[in-house]
Structures are given as structure tokens and as C-alpha cells.
Amino acid sequence: MTHTPPIPAGNQSPYPLHEPPHAKHDAPPPGDPHVARKPEPATVSVPTVIGIAAGIGLAAIAGGLFYAFGTSAKPKPRKKRKAAKQEA
């Protein structure tokens, strides 16, 4: 279809279909106070360190408990099989 039919005035969208062209801006001069600064490198906060330490400590405690109660000092005795009777 090479022809787009006209849209009635009451049926047109109040929002534009295409964004109007923007004005071209040059780069700001160096040292301009209005230019955003680069963010500082993230530092580890005290609550983060406490959380990490608590997580590692709880994992160690859980591992110790699993090791202590998961293995027994004496191996469980095996059930003896009944010998099959041989007919002579």
C-alpha cells in the first residue's frame, strides 16, 4: 500500500508518533562544575563485613554439626546372611 489514508482530526493521538529533533550540544569545557563526576570506588561497609562473618560462622557451625552427628564412631554392624543349605 503506497498511500496512507488520512486520519480524522478527532481520531488523532495527542502524543507525537516521532520525537522532535534535538538541538546539538558541544562537549562541556573541562573542569565545568555542572558536569557529573565519576563515582568513587565502592568501599565495604561495616554491616557488610558483619554479615559476611556471620554467614561464614554459621556455615562452619552447620558443617561441624553435620560432621559430628553424621558420622558415628563405630560402623554399623552388617546383617549376617543365612547360609544356603546344600543338598547332598
List the helices and strands and how they pair.
Layout: H1 46-70
What does this structure look like?
The mean pLDDT is 81. With 88 residues, the chain is an all-alpha fold. The chain is elongated, with a radius of gyration of 39 Å. The chain starts with 45 loop residues before the first helix and ends in an 18-residue tail after the last helix. The chain has one helix at residues 46-70. It is built from 1 helix and no strands. 28% of the residues lie in helices and 0% in strands.
Q: How helix-rich are the residues, as a percent range? A: 25-40%
What is the beta-strand fraction?
Answer: under 5%
Nearest-integer average pLDDT? 81
Low-confidence stretches: none
How many angstroms separate the termini?
100 Å
Major sheet attributes:
none
Instruction: Indicate the overall shape.
Output: elongated
Radius of gyration: 39 Å
Q: Topology as H/E string? A: H
Which structural category fits the helices and strands? mainly alpha
How many helices does DSSP assign? Answer: 1
| Number of beta strands | 0
Short synopsis of the structure:
The protein has 88 residues and is mainly alpha-helical.
Notable characteristics:
single chain; 88 residues; mainly alpha
